[in-house]
Please model this.
Amino acid sequence: MQSRDASDLVVLDRAQKHFVITKGLIRRSHRAIRAVDDVSLSIHRGETFGLVGESGSGKTTLARLIPRLTRLTGGRVSFDGRDIDTVGGSELTRIRRRMGIVFQDPASSLSPRATVRGSVIRPLQLQGAGAREAAGRLLETVELVNLGPELLERYPHQLSGGQQQRASIARAIILRPELLILDEPTSALDVSVQAQILNLLLELQREFGLTYLFITHNLSVVRYMSDRIGVMYLGKLVEVGPAAELYARPLHPYTAALLSASPPQTPRLRQRRKFALAGDPPSLIDPPAGCHLHPRCAFTRDICRQERPALRAIGLARFVACHFAEQLALQVGD
Amino acid sequence: MKLPAQLRPVLRNPQFVAGVILLLVVLFSALGADMIAPKSFEEMDIPSSLAPPSRQYPLGTDHYGRCIFSRVVYGSRIALRVGLIVVTIETVIGVSLGLLAGYYGGRVDRVISFVTDLTWALPPIVLALAIVTALGPSLNNVVIAIALVSWAGYSRLIRSKAQSLKNMPYVEAARALGESDFSIMFRYILPNTYGLIIVLATLSVPAAILSTTALSFLGLGSQPPAPDWGVILNEGIAYMHSAPWISIFPGLALVCTALGFNLLGEGLRDLLDPRMKV
Amino acid sequence: MGLVDAQPAAGRPLMQVSDLGVTFQTSRGSVRAVSGVSFEVRESEVFALVGESGCGKSTTALAVMRLVPPPGRIDSGQVVFDGVPLLDLDEDAMARVRGKQISMIFQNPLVALNPVYRSAAQIEEALLLDQIPRDRAWKLAVGVMGDVKIPDAPERALSYPHELSGGMRQRVMTGMMISRSPRLLIADEPTTALDVTIQAQVLELLMDIRRRTKMSIMIITHDFGIVAETADRIAVMYAGGIVEQGGVLEVFEQSGHPYTRLLMRALPRLTKEEGRLETIAGHVPNLVELPSGCTFHPRCPLKRDACLIERPTVREVSPGHFVTCHYPEV
Model:
């Protein structure tokens, strides 16, 4: 996956984001929070890459590295072959216009003092589009996301959660970007509204050949949406693979634990095989030595406490960071 | 805007209504002073000096026989103007510095916060006294002095508000769209602090008026024969026992104005408080 | 054993709620948050009240505890708990029911715990209400922390809430709420703020408590996955009323109400290749002006004339499976 391929839109090469925290007034100690630690992955053009993990896994920080909303502290991130961290200001703006972002909380994603029209049309204005052209594109875009034009003059607090999220999506796609970064876009929505938004995202992808980075903690949503899935734990990517294969046969014990912990879709699956994890996730400041999962993993052996497993290929399309991936049979059963 | 529905709970709040009525009276007398006041504020009537309230002089006269009622009414112009100017200057300084400190953080924040804390730590009247002594006594100098020493509260509040707003997803989204820092501060962050600023500004008017009046009382601000309430109070001191009305009525006007702004500010806070709305 | 540890359907009823109604008087009119809600919770069963936001599920739970915040008011119905009509009790008697007979855990344990008390002290506080002497109460509280599977309980007993992880806080709150051995535990979105693996641990704990103590548990949730994982029987709420209730398998697999069926198909199951998700047209109705007839009719794909005019009655489509619809599918 480190191979440079014309079909890759986004490539992360040992990307690293450490936040330094300083403690103490007199005896200062600096320690790093390894929010994203040595992550390499590539997102192919036109695919949906799902990124799952629990809070503190670093998935949101990883997403913020791509439009350089936060700076790398090591490694490289490139978009369509260009190194995001070294490009100049105007080039960065041009690259950012080729990406859109949708956030989790629809209520706070739109400026409370701007109307829907003001928020959605703003990217066009910044790009210097003429008023007439912008108005036409605006109408076309709100129609694409099924937002009634009568809602354009409303303020965010006058909209339902689903309508707010449609407006956010409209703003994200109004420049017709190539990549959409979707950070938990449906987690704050009710089931029936979630279904509408997911359908909409699939339609838009089909229509514009969009590439999605879909971040979520909801495993049924990510399976439904994604072609490939990456699983993060404590800042590290622990497994990557095609969605169907990853669900059918997880290779990493953490993936198996996530799958079996996520609530079943029918009561008949209550007796599925469960891979429970012991205890709580450890702190990011002092992650355990060796494999980060070893204090919680049921399959821990000596090597796991000492040696950090590298992400390695298994078969053609799968990657896993576990010493014993081949020996464990982790099917959850579905 | 559906203001009526939002106003309803406030109109039911008797304190807010009282504040509005008090301020309407002050505003009315400031605007209509020429029509309300029976005399000019400097017209002397020596034979009637130190006269108690009567039909001719509703609030009595001072040692020059000037009509206290007229002087108090004209004084409201000075008080309101001073309040407005001081608050405008301190709002502009405090809000800009607070925005810069909160948005940029880091070194910018450390420098601005240091200056803010310094200003905050010094007693304002003493600082203003020093400035006026340096610039010479005049109302304008007092206004400048008061404004220069009282913006720290704005800066602190706006700074902390900007710190929380800059992490809102809509600000992130704006950055990702390529909005400039200036545009983010003034289009996305500032408008969401308006409620806070309005409340703060309203609540700081009394302090501004009281401080300038105090300096005028000490002879550093408005100079006689200006009908500044502070000046009238000062002139009345000598006659506190024989003609208390000279001091009582401008004092009362001062209290009512300050109270009016405070009550209005509290009411506005209930209406606009960002903690209740956002 | 049929379904995992599902209880026999014939458990004795512990709490019967009938025709419960709650109205909030607001400046915009009266909001009918809950209307005509009837259900029962049986001994040592897990009963789930499920629905989307604003459907009235949390208000129903608060009404059972008689904790509806003003301007809300219970204006109809009765709650009979173990033979005692709760809505007729005076406030002192009701206070004795809360915590001792029925207790409740909330979504956000951080705000429900007192930040200045150590975690065992929170539990101790509950025990002191039962006139247990202080020296014994602390020991018992630490024991309860062990019961809710808090590792190193004697040590964690001294931690303050902010020093604990979200999962541990939820365990402390659960411990506090079960320490007086209530007969019914109401859990309002108990795991919504937690990560998936921690959620699994907390649900497992609740199931373990039920197995050990035979306590009945009423779970309030918007997540059908949690229902599928835990419930014996469920009630689905929509716009303040119950539209369907019955055994968990019947409701999941033979949903009788169109709303339930649509919700089930709105859940992403497999992959996008398997086709679009079902969506439900329109919006949840405004509770100030509920639609005439069946509250679901403006969004229902199967509505007929009767649905616009007449309020549907509750029908028993199979033993123990109730559907509030004119044309239930069986």
User: Anything to note?
Assistant: DSSP finds 14 helices and no strands in chain B. The two ends of chain B are 17 Å apart (CA to CA). The CA atoms of residues 87 and 204 of chain B lie 7 Å apart.
